[in-house]
């Protein structure tokens, strides 16, 4: 648009001065960005919002903390600060979050969402002391990824993943085998780089399953027989893997066990609609589907369910999660026993005691008058449209809107329900954008005053988020797929055999990047970067097992969510 205007003006257009770019024009962009985000601020006042935090290190090992505000409409970037020289104590994190709460307005903030790092949990306790009515919750994306990493580490699944990894490394290690594979798959890559290590594992395993017959044809072809690598130890092992019925059965079982959780992961990470009222219920469904996939064999499914439950404990079963679960009519109206679950009801009562702290009359009104009307389907809650309108949890069903339509006889509970059912359950929307940060925080630009630096970051981050929010509406995008191949390096690189035919890993990754751009079925959405974390750095109640973990962000191929039996 800007270049079109320049062209229309002609060659006589004077360029902007350095001063106008760095001061008046930048201030104008800040004000323009703020005006575009006014509608978000109005929504914060109406139905509340979430503060999302994310602390990470860039490629130069600089420590950076982002703060974003999420509401039903979308995510807004609020501030970012480099804190390399600061100790990330609970007090430091709390002070930064508190400044954000004051900026947004304490009455508008319902929750703070972050991972369960020990210092974050310490900050949560400080917040609880000062602002007991604001909840501090764990990122669902991060927690579900922990579950998947833990399950993938169980021996029966790790064996299959290791075999699959060795197979792909062998194929991608040599020009000849790589060319053979691309010929048989019609130039479709096996590797699908994900936004984390587990995402790469799942997507690549699914890709292998889709290309099972082509790979079998490749390893049974005359070309393979004549290939010098067919007689090497790794070549024989790869042939044995591809022709093994046990391996392919293992791949199928892995996908059937992983898929129910991956489905929930996509839901909370994509943020197509508020997920606070969905995450607990959908995890229950995922556990049931996993047990069914394993034929109801308790010995087979118990270790998996134990991992899920351990990761949920203290993270995704809070009083906020369970209250949102009960107040989502899709679950309550389809299973009336939820209201008799002591764990759920204890959490609900504790939630209202916290939210309405010190206001006994309001607690009595909501808990003893309003809530029973909802549970017993009195007044509009019992209307045919109210009952039939929440039978199916399709993409268009909005539990907060349902409350807006049918909760008129309980105005106080209606307001609370609409606020918590409009919340996100994940902080992945507060994404790390290294290119934006590094473009601003160069040595040269570090000479700029702090205020100007903050304005540059504010404008650029929000421009990126606005673009992401537009693309977020496209539900065909695969949120686990990264738009570059570097996150899949461990599926490509393993050292060479010293035979002079090795493929340069960088050229392989460039080829995969090109395939991602040209393949119609793979639509990367944004730049994303993997961060590795370790579970011992995190707190959770009554949790004994420790698994290595990564943290998610998001993006782009359409993959079937349900596997054929």
TrEMBL record:
Composition bias type Basic and acidic residues, residue spans: 555-565
Domain DUF659: 16-166
Acidic residues compositional bias, start-end: 534-554
Biased segments, Polar residues type: 518-531
Protein name: DUF659 domain-containing protein
Pfam families: Dimer_Tnp_hAT, DUF659
Coiled-coil positions: none
Region annotated Disordered, chain positions: 515-565
Gene Ontology molecular functions: protein dimerization activity
HAT C-terminal dimerisation domain: residues covered: 394-462
InterPro entries attached to this UniProt entry: DUF659 (IPR007021), HATC_C_dom (IPR008906), RNaseH-like_sf (IPR012337)
């Amino acid at each position: 648009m800007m270049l079109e205007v320049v062209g229309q003006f002609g060659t006589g257009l004077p360029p902007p001065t350095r001063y106008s770019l760095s001061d008046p024009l930048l201030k104008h962009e800040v004000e323009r960005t703020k005006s575009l985000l006014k509608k978000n601020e109005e929504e914060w006042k109406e139905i509340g919002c979430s503060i999302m935090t994310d602390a990470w290190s860039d490629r130069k090992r600089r420590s950076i903390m982002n703060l974003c505000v999420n509401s039903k409409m979308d995510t807004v970037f609020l501030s970012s600060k480099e804190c390399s020289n600061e100790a990330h104590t609970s007090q430091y994190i709390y002070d930064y979050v508190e400044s954000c709460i004051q900026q947004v307005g304490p009455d508008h903030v319902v929750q703070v969402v972050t991972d369960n790092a020990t210092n974050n949990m310490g900050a949560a306790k400080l917040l609880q002391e000062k602002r007991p009515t604001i909840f501090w919750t764990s990122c669902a994306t991060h927690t579900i990824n922990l579950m998947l990493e833990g399950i993938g580490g169980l021996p029966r699944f790790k064996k299959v993943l290791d075999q699959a990894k060795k197979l792909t490394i062998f194929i991608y290690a040599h020009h000849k085998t790589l060319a053979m594979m691309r010929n048989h798959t019609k130039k479709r890559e096996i590797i699908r780089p994900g936004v984390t290590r587990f995402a790469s594992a799942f997507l690549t395993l699914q890709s292998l399953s889709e290309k099972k017959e082509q790979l079998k044809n490749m390893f049974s072809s005359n070309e393979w027989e004549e290939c010098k690598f067919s007689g090497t130890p790794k070549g024989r092992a790869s042939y044995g893997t591809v022709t093994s019925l046990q391996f392919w059965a293992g791949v199928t079982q892995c996908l059937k066990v992983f898929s129910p959780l991956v489905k929930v992961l996509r839901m909370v990470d994509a943020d197509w609609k508020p997920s606070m009222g969905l995450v607990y219920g959908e995890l229950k469904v995922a556990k049931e589907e996993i047990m069914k996939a394993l034929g109801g064999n308790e010995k087979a499914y118990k270790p998996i369910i134990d991992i899920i439950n351990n990761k949920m404990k203290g993270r995704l079963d809070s009083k906020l999660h369970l209250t949102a679960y009960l107040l989502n009519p899709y679950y309550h109206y389809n299973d009336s026993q939820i209201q008799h679950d002591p764990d759920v009801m204890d959490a609900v009562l504790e939630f209202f005691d916290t939210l309405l702290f010190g206001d006994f009359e309001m607690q009595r009104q909501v808990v003893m008058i309003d809530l029973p009307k909802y549970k017993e389907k009195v007044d509009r809650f019992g209307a045919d449209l109210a009952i039939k309108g929440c039978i199916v949890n399709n993409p268009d069903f909005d539990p907060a809107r349902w409350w807006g339509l049918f909760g008129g006889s309980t105005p106080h509970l209606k307001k609370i329900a609409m606020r918590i059912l409009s919340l996100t359950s994940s902080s992945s929307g507060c994404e790390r954008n290294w290119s934006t940060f590094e473009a601003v925080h160069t040595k040269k630009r570090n000479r700029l005053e702090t205020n100007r630096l903050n304005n540059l970051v504010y404008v650029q981050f929000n421009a990126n988020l606005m673009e992401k929010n537009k693309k977020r509406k496209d539900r065909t995008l695969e949120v686990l797929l990264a738009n570059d191949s570097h996150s899949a390096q461990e599926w490509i690189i393993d050292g060479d055999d010293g035979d002079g035919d090795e493929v340069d890993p960088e050229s392989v990754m460039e080829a995969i990047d090109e395939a991602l751009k040209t393949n119609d079925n793979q639509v990367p959405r944004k730049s994303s970067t993997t961060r590795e974390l370790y579970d011992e750095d995190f707190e959770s109640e009554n949790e004994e097992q420790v698994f290595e973990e990564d943290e998610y962000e998001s993006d782009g191929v359409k993959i079937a969510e349900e596997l054929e039996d």
